[in-house]
Write a structure and sequence with these properties.
Elements: E1 5-8, H1 20-29, H2 33-41, H3 44-48, H4 54-65, H5 71-81, H6 87-98, E2 102-107, H7 111-119, H8 123-126, E3 129-132, H9 133-136, H10 143-153, E4 160-164, H11 167-175, E5 179-182, H12 186-196
Parallel strand pairs: 1-2, 1-4, 2-3, 4-5
Length: about 200
């Protein structure tokens, strides 16, 4: 089956290096990953699928962590810190689209960062489709998330390729019949993608 669409994960693939906000919180404010673990492994998952809002769930946690600023200041710091886009990948995506390949962002994000990615990070222009978990209502590795993408694109699952840095997400996609590759570094992506697609470089 010919590959007609490629879905790229955000954090750890297009946005790389990732987890800069956690590093920033620890180094600048003394808020360690251990302190925030309960939030990110708990109610934050409701935010990721659009069932909760950061402004509503953060205040209690910020008080526990000793954050001195406002909720909005915390969110703004978060967005600005995790704004590192790998220009090599975005250039590759532009070339893929020029070759007729549909390119999508497939990522777990809550509402604020989804909007930030669209407008401030320029992803509305970079990709053909943006599949944010907070808008889809499901997140990887849930089968419903992948099925939503299939239905929206109107493509056979065998014609879709996923690039993700999570082994669990890759295996879930493969179980549904998608092509899927684990992302480790750009050089590997650039080499491996040519096994699927004959890419003609723009002049």
């Amino acid at each position: 089956m010919i590959i007609k669409a490629i879905c790229f994960d955000a954090d750890g693939v297009v946005v790389n290096p990732q987890m800069q906000f956690s590093k920033h919180l620890n180094e600048e404010y003394g808020i360690s990953p251990k302190m925030t673990q309960g939030f990110f492994q708990g109610v934050f998952n409701d935010c990721l699928v659009g069932k909760a809002n950061l402004e509503d769930v953060l205040p209690t946690f910020l008080a526990e962590w000793g954050w001195k600023g406002s909720v909005n200041e915390f969110i703004k710091t978060w967005l600005l810190t995790d704004h590192i886009v790998d220009s090599r990948i975005t250039q590759l995506i532009r070339n893929l689209r020029w070759n007729g390949i549909i390119c999508c962002l497939a990522t777990s994000q809550e509402h604020h960062r989804a909007e930030y990615m669209k407008r401030e990070m320029g992803f509305q222009e970079v990709f053909d489709h943006l599949f944010f978990s907070c808008e889809v209502g499901w997140q990887k590795p849930c089968p419903a998330y992948y099925q939503y993408i299939e239905k929206t694109l109107g493509l056979a699952k065998e014609s879709i390729l996923l690039w993700d840095d999570s082994r669990i997400n890759i295996e879930a996609a493969q179980e549904l019949g998608w092509n899927a590759e684990i992302y480790t570094e750009f050089a590997d992506l650039e080499k491996t993608i040519k096994k699927y697609i004959a890419i003609e470089n723009r002049a």
